[in-house]
Amino acid sequence: QWLLSSPGSMKFRAKITNKGFIELFIQVSGTIAKLAKVCVLRVCQDKLCFGPTGPRATREARLWCKVMRGASFYQFNMEGVSEELNEIYLELISEHLYRAVRSAGNAASLKIQLTNKRRPCLTVAVELASRTGHTHVMVHDLPVRVLPRRWWKEYPEPSIQVSDVSVYLPALKTLKSIVERMANMGDNVLVEANLNGKMNLSIETDVVSIKSYFKNLGNPLKSAHSVPQDRDPESMVQVRVENRKLLQFFEGQQINPTTALCNILSNTLLHLVLVHEDVSLQYFIPAL
């Protein structure tokens, strides 16, 4: 099923030597593997983007992860299809990438390169240092599909509508345990938030009703500027989503974010955002 054509003139080579960023890249790869079985890696001059495959009209939750080039990469060289279209689109199995990089926890360096070994591959090289001072390199060749230019429009960066409310998330471990309990009792959960930093999660069935309240979470400044002046800050904006999809996010994400946001588009979309240094992870869960 993998395209056997050559990457041609396209080139990509990146190297990470910063131990903290190697660990973060492992966490990012693990998160992507949990949230998207197959993903499209979009290589740009200033960033790497991991996005979903499949038609955009799907009702499934969708992932978008961006790793900025920043200062974290020791080396980052790429040449795309052409000067005007200086990008590369690769389809790969997410779990393969995670298996390749997870051994890099104590590595001296992590290299990622687009290669052609009888078929297009993303070659991951993990350089491990031994106690004697010698190094050995573990090399993983991951088959990839090089997506032709005519398919690129099928994999756009998500266009983000202005949300009706945006609130900082409470501790992710706390949320995960609450959503786990709720998932055992019903199929969907109501998520509510307002402009006074409050957020509620609730589930209601014929047998049981549960509601968790959070307050003093805070709202990003920009969210307060984008709402009508006459709107009551206490009024709750809500969206009902599948418990399974929400739980998948909290179980799958492995990043320890410095910023975690919940954006709600009333009765339409739950948009979760995690940011840590040069990495941003977005998860879009459509309303029921």
Number of domains: 2
The total count of helices amounts to 5
Tell how many strands the DSSP assignment holds: 18
CATH topology of the largest domain: Proliferating Cell Nuclear Antigen
Helix content: 10-25%
Strand order of the largest sheet: 10-6-2-3-4-18-17-16-11
Main sheet attributes: strand count, strand direction, barrel closure: 9 strands, antiparallel
Mind telling me the CATH class of the largest domain? Alpha Beta
For the residues shown, what is the average pLDDT?
A: 90
Global shape: globular
The computed structural class is alpha+beta
Secondary-structure element pattern, one letter each: EHEEEEEHEEEEEHEEEHEHEEE
Distance between the termini: 34 Å
- Radius of gyration, rounded? 21 Å
Tell me the fraction of residues in β-strands, as a range: 35-45%
Low-confidence parts, pLDDT < 50 over ≥5 residues? 1-5
CATH architecture of the largest domain: Box
Give the helices and strands, then pairings.
Blueprint lengths: L10 E6 L2 H17 L2 E6 L3 E6 L9 E7 L6 E5 L8 E6 H8 L7 E8 L3 E10 L5 E9 L1 E2 L18 E4 L3 H12 L4 E6 L5 E6 L4 E6 L6 H5 L11 E6 H10 L6 E7 L3 E8 L2 E8 L2
Antiparallel strand pairs: 1-5, 1-7, 2-3, 2-6, 3-4, 4-18, 6-10, 7-8, 8-9, 11-16, 12-13, 12-15, 13-14, 16-17, 17-18
